[in-house]
Amino acid sequence: MAILYALVARGSVVLAEFTAASTNASAIARQILEKIPGNNDTHASYSQDRYIFHVKRTDGLTVLCMADESAGRRIPFTFLEDIHQRFVRTYGRAVFSALPYGMNDEFSRVLSQQMEYYSSDPNADRINRVKGEMSQVRNVMIENIDKVLERGDRLELLVDKTANMQGNTFRFRKQARRFRNTVWWRNVKLTVALIILLLIIVYVVLAFVCHGITLPSCLK
């Protein structure tokens, strides 16, 4: 999967999170939450190894995800915007008084579903291309994570490589299923066309035979 981890937090208080891989991204995400400067709305991206932590903070609510660098910026930030809207729409002002992990039981499933959608469904990127990149995303510079975390404090990012293999397998199976469906529909259309052609031939033959039978009676 392109997006491997996501959380929603109020300040440094995590309200919901989900991980699609065996990784210590959760610990690193907490370090980032504690180190993000100021209280203003922000969009930021921090790279570590070949993964990038994307952060969106709006009105005191922070949404963060860790994605493979190949995912670029548009998809992760569109994912973050989607999650932010869903979270606020679902919980309203309760987010400002909720206990740690107060929404995790319910909203972790939403994180999982949307992570899979933005990681695997090509329609997610097609929609984004039609809408165009968000203006604030164009200005986001991807900085090394050392910008916010002291080198001595920074944890090494550990990601189970089988997670990416599973993601690739999922995409392969989806493409194979789509190909099988395409071939099946093509065969159905060909079969229908052959049946129609056969019916036309039968009709012409019957019409000719019937015409041949009635012709002598007409000559009398």
Automatic annotation (TrEMBL):
InterPro entries: Longin-like_dom_sf, Longin_dom, Synaptobrevin-like, Synaptobrevin-like_transport, V_SNARE_CC
Alphabetical UniProt keywords: Coiled coil, Membrane, Protein transport, Signal, Transmembrane, Transmembrane helix, Transport, Vacuole
Location(s) in or outside the cell: Prevacuolar compartment membrane; Vacuole membrane
Residue ranges annotated for the V-SNARE coiled-coil homology domain, each copy included: 126-186
SUPFAM superfamilies: SNARE fusion complex, SNARE-like
Membrane-spanning residues: 190-215
Entries under Pfam families matching the protein: Longin (PF13774), Synaptobrevin (PF00957)
Topology of this chain in the membrane: Single-pass type IV membrane protein
Principal cellular location given in the protein's record: membrane
GO biological process: protein transport; vesicle-mediated transport
Highest rank taxon of the organism: Eukaryota
One GO cellular component term noted in the UniProt record for this chain: vacuolar membrane
Keyword Phosphoprotein: no
Domain spans labelled Longin: 7-111
Signal peptide: 1-16
Protein role: Involved in the targeting and/or fusion of transport vesicles to their target membrane.
Family membership: Belongs to the synaptobrevin family.
Protein name: Vesicle-associated membrane protein 711
Native organism: Herrania umbratica
Taxonomy of the source species: Eukaryota, Viridiplantae, Streptophyta, Embryophyta, Tracheophyta
Encoding gene, per UniProt annotation: LOC110410260
